[in-house]
Please model this.
Amino acid sequence: MSRFASPVGHALSSGITRRGVLALLAAGTAAASPLLAGCTSDRTAATTTTGAPTGAATRGGTARLAFAGAGAAESLDPTVGTSPCDLARYAVVFDSLFFFADGEAKPSLATAAEADSKARTCTLTLRKGVKWHDGTPFTAADVVHTLKYRASPDRVSPSELSAYFDLASAEAADDHTVVVPTVQPVGDPATLFAGAGLHVIKDGTSSFSADNTVGTGPYRVTAFKTGVETRLERYDGYWDGDGYAAEVVLLSVDDAQARVNAVKDGQADYASDISFTTAKAGTPGAGLQIRDAGKDARTTYGFVLNVSRDLPSDPRVRKAIKLGIDRKALVQAVFLGYGAPANDLFGAGAKYYLDSVDVPQRDVTDAKRLLKAAGATGRPFVVRTAEYETGLNSSAELFVEQLKDLGLDASLVKVSTTEGYDPAGMKACDAMSFPLGPFSLALTYTRSAAFETLAFPDEELTEAVATAISTTSETERAEAWTTAQKVMADRGNWIAWGRSDVLSLAQEKLTGIENRESPKYPWLGKAGFTA
Model:
């Protein structure tokens, strides 16, 4: 799955695909949002357990996990699927070169990615001793094939890594070394590879079915029924240690309440991404627990202002909105206590994230003064929203009411998730609801600008992001990301108002659920049950 785009303000010119944005956002789509009416109760949120049990799992058994799926659109091809069920399956059947954990890139099939002194070539050092599910050894030829396969224009969605690397020119220097030329300087290639959803496929692979899909991951496919379930068998001999559950079954269940019911009725051991209303009602049965993924794995909710439009282009209007909205009211109404106000920055939990930026203090008087000075009072302001995350639509409703209180003639346009990022529709709005998980800053500062109508064309910001991506100096990279975040907090077009917990329902004894890229599709390589 493609997850990377080009530098802020220049996304369209370098081949960012609409599917890439939809994939990143739709991966977290959950059940219908809570209504604003009746959702502002001061009642304390029901207690959750952070993370999975820490006790050692026993070997054996079947772990059954329910995720939001995509029906007939699901696929075993790791370059195609975008639903949480697809992504959870890809992550446990295939391995990537690098993966994200604790906000930064970690080695997987590649142990290092080194840029040359001018950041024009990347040398990948590959892990030795890895075998495919059919017993053949993993080599550089597999990585070269994967890069060329992803670069092909015949793909449904060619890899956005092509904006940075000349994937088609990748060459194997030896069995465990691959050299990849860049098309622009890349100083931290591991982060780009980790953010690209680049699952490595075997040399020669061109089709995927339950009979011929092999990976290097901890589980292998034994059966696949599109939109229903995937059955996975433990692959003993996995390079990072054998898994615990003998079998993992992934259930494709698009409705969040149906996922909860599956666990309640004993048909599943885990339900991903449950609603805040379900959590607040408490655990639905004995032996079950509501889990949150932790503060660093929260999803940031916000709005991106379209600075190609008259009002959002005025820094006084942007400042007024930052100062005037009631973040606490939004958090309480939408998250029901499962979250906290945000500071207008996406990327919380990632390496280089600027924790020192405070949540803006609400000042309605100053906000109204700024809007009046900008000549914005009483003028139309259109907010567009789609329910990519539980509560985005209801947050947009409350946001519009708050803008009206500040003096704007605000209105709301609700569209389906398939229409949400339609370029024409986005061009006609002043603000667009936008959620983003705990991804790297490189991903955060490019994917949020995947369309010109969401980009922030600021010279200082563009230079900072370009430096952060191209420099080989860790010190320069940290300084560049600090600059970029200060620009966005001070005068940027992000109104990131809150961070929500990511909740799940699980059997108490289910353990080994590991948050990597997103807790909405966790890594299941060590899933199992405590004694």
